[in-house]
Amino acid sequence: MTQDALPVLRLKPKADARRIRHGHPWAWSDDLVLDRRARNIAPGALAILEDAERKPLGVGVASVEARIGLRLLDRDAGAAIDRDWLRARLRAALDLRERAFDAPFYRLVHAEGDGLPGLIADRFGDTIVLQPNAVWLEDRLEAIRDLLAELTGARCIVKNGTARARAAEGLPDEMAVLLGDAPAAPIDVPMNGAVYRADVMGGQKTGLFFDQRPNHAFAARFAREARVLDVFSHVGGFALACLAAGAHSALAVDASEGALALARDGAAITGVAERFETRAGDAFDTMTALGAEGAQFDLVICDPPAFAPSRQALQQGLRAYERTARLAADLVAPGGVVILCSCSHAADLGKFRMACLRGLGRAGRDPRLIHTGFAGPDHPQHPALTETGYLKALAFRLMP
After folding, report:
1. Which of 7, 163, 167, 252 registers the highest number of CB atoms within 10 A of its CB?
2. How many CB atoms lie under 10 A from the CB of residue 202?
């Protein structure tokens, strides 16, 4: 279809076109004129977005039956969304990571943060794991695979189609190897002086979370000779970085024994296994039990899953963050540090901070905020989308 032949979606007269002109990449379906022609636009099809005066705002992908009626791909309404366009976006994403990191282990594509709505790609050396979470990507998956192989030299590309976001797009859950052979074993990933084990075929999401890398490094500064507790540890994220920096000991807590087994493998490869312990179980129950045992740690980190994944879950999620802070505070030795994290985009930084302070206050502790952390440069934030800047990490010193 030529650009002139693309269907047009138009904003209603009362819709705020300035919001899009000033950078927001989404048009809500409620703001669109949805006549019969508009409703016949297939999900994922390219369409031109115009304001109420028929002035073009850009070209994007339509999904008029969903809450987000159109996602902008390019603010040039005449841009051809073809293979060359995809190559340019992927090349730009790769250039940023190659400047920021010395080794090829990072998030390579961060959806709207890299101008590719719905596409997540994590790189593990010569293996790339894709999460194509929007219908427009499915028709272009072969081109994306070939371009990534061309640009990075990747020998294995895996499609992980298990994210919840795919359901909203009407896409099925599926795992597939798009290029090469599936890794026969977890992949060793060096970060912050430690080695992590990423199970890209059977692990959580793409197998490893790169977003916490700068916060791991911050925590490691306070870890020398420290007793460390890493709750919701997954494959040892904070614990292994702290041990690599000289922590006296680290205890990792997670509900998944499989994840903890990978953490123990990582500790052995890093050479810190003798200072590392794990405990499988519910995080709240385990923290309560540790408190009853009188356990004390110099550094406690809690990095839970998204307690507030949507606005509807916000209040319940904030109560869970408050409870996390209260239980963690009981385990911090006088003068120690607690780091509390949230990956809930619905809980903005201010709400999350207040929930943490309520929990610390209920525990009778006197906190001082010493650091506010976010994801690293391989997770670029779109300034208009809180979804791309979901991660927050607050470090408090609890006064002696």
Report:
1. 252
2. 9
Residue 62, pLDDT > 80, answer: yes
Side-chain half-sphere of 340: how many Cα atoms within 13 Å? 31
**Separation between Cα atoms, residue 121 and residue 106, nearest integer Å:** 9
Whether residue 343 lies in the annotated active site: yes
Tokens for 293, please give them: 């045992």
> Exposed e or buried b for every residue in 158-197, given b needs 16+ CB within 10 A?
bbbbebeebeebebeeeeeebbeeebeebbbbebbbbbbb
Using the structure block, give the residue that is written with the tokens 């597939």: 176
> Residue 322: which pLDDT band, with cuts at 50, 70 and 90?
very high
Of the listed 302, 341, 343, 356, which one is catalytic? Answer: 343
- Two tokens at 9? 């979606």
AA identity, residue 249: S
- Give the neighbor-by-neighbor strand order of the sheet with 227-231: 276-280, 249-254, 227-231, 297-302, 332-342, 392-398, 367-373
User: What are the φ and ψ backbone dihedral angles of 306, each rounded to 5 degrees?
Assistant: -65, 105
Q: What's the average model confidence in pLDDT over 150-162?
A: 96
Among residues 134, 138, 158, 136, which one has the least CA distance to residue 148? 158
For residue 370, what are its two tokens?
A: 């010493």
- State pLDDT tens for residues 159-198: 999 988 888 788 899 999 999 999 999 999 999 999 999 9
